[in-house]
Amino acid sequence: MQVDTPAKIRNVALVGHNDTGKTTLASALLYSGGAVNRMARVEEKNTVTDFDPEELARGISIGAGVCFVPWRQHKINLIDCPGYGIFFTETKCGMRAADSALLCVNGVAGVEVTTENAWDCAAEMELPLLVHLTKMDRERADLGRTLEGLQKRFGRGIVPIQLPLGSEHQFSGVVDLVKRQAFVFDRDGSGKAKEVALPSDVAATVEEWRAKLIEAVAETDDALMEKFFETGTLPDDDLREGLRRAVRTRKLFPLTVSAGLHCIGTSTLLDVLVDVAPSPADRGGFLHRDRLDAFRERPAGGERFPDLDLSGRASHGRLPGASRRSARSWARAPSSGRTPDPR
Ligand SMILES: Nc1nc2c(ncn2[C@@H]2O[C@H](COP(=O)(O)OP(=O)(O)OP(=O)(O)O)[C@@H](O)[C@H]2O)c(=O)[nH]1
Ligand SMILES: [Mg+2]
């Protein structure tokens, strides 16, 4: 896929604790975006981003796997990072290559160890971060409780920009708080969504959360705050632009929801990545150019900067530490007796 300007690229690292469903979400985004014609599953060992024999045998991600989804004339590059702590160096490399991180948090379990590590790492790298609640179809998945835990640990900059429609097994879609639109997804896992009228039983809740979002965005900018004091709200354009700017400057961390396994909330997430996540043009260059130079001097196997492709096997041209090759061969060395067992 050709894109003519960096503003149409999104480089997003999927990070979070193990088992939050990052690899499944990457598969669901590929499928919902029409990049592949079949929804792949970790259990079926056919995902694009887990392909190493060790990953397939263990059913976990060990290295960062890349793929891209064309969406609304944009190219969304996804870097599916491992969640286990012993592979966190890989996660860091994935984050370094990205312009934003999508911090996946299990909608049942809430904040876990890698949630904290990834949050801290993003802060250190000054990387914009979006929070994403996964597995919203599971029993006891709950936005209110999980959000409370997240805000308690990371502050009130985490603000929902979507609400779930239905809960647990009845989770069927999302409400976009910015656009005030509701989308219901087909239950057959096809990822197809249709816009519906805002259900009357959620209308009041939507207005309440939208008001909180508007206030949070207004607080990030003096001019917006003035407008907000004058009118008690913000025009839609200001809300959209203010949100984008607040994400780019790490003043806000917008929260979205999905159930990747059933492709619910996936096309709406792609919309959010296009509308809200920063592009390389927003972010500018690398922080550690010295490490990038070192990588340039010692290209592994002659593969310097090949393009990303759908096989997920492209090398990490933008990864300064480029540890993928070494981390994977280390993890693949049972005869050395050094194979880490993450369980
Ligand atoms: N019910 C439900 N299960 C899910 C969902 N997404 C993923 N799973 C299941 O959760 C398990 C872990 O999914 P993965 O996608 O491998 O999780 P991960 O975050 O990539 O895990 P690591 O690579 O180890 O960090 C798998 O058994 C998935 O089928 C979901 O939306 N709903
Ligand atoms: Mg994974």
Structure overview:
The chain has about 350 residues and is an alpha/beta fold. It has two domains: about 5-285, P-loop containing nucleotide triphosphate hydrolases (Rossmann fold); about 290-330, no CATH class. The protein contains twelve helices and eleven strands. The strands form two sheets. A seven-stranded mixed β-sheet has the order 2-3-1-4-5-11-6, sandwiched between helices. Strands 7-8-9-10 form a four-stranded antiparallel β-sheet, with no helix packed on it. It is globular, with a radius of gyration of 20 Å. It starts with 8 loop residues before the first strand and ends in a 12-residue tail after the last helix. Mean pLDDT is about 85; it is low at about 300-343. The structure holds guanosine-5'-triphosphate and magnesium ion (MG). The site of guanosine-5'-triphosphate has 22 residues, from helix 1.
In CATH terms, the superfamily of the largest domain is: P-loop containing nucleotide triphosphate hydrolases
Overall pLDDT metric:
87
Domain count: the total is 2
CATH architecture grouping of the largest domain: 3-Layer(aba) Sandwich
What is the name of the CATH class of the largest domain? Alpha Beta
Percentage of β-strand residues: 15-25%
Radius of gyration: 20 Å
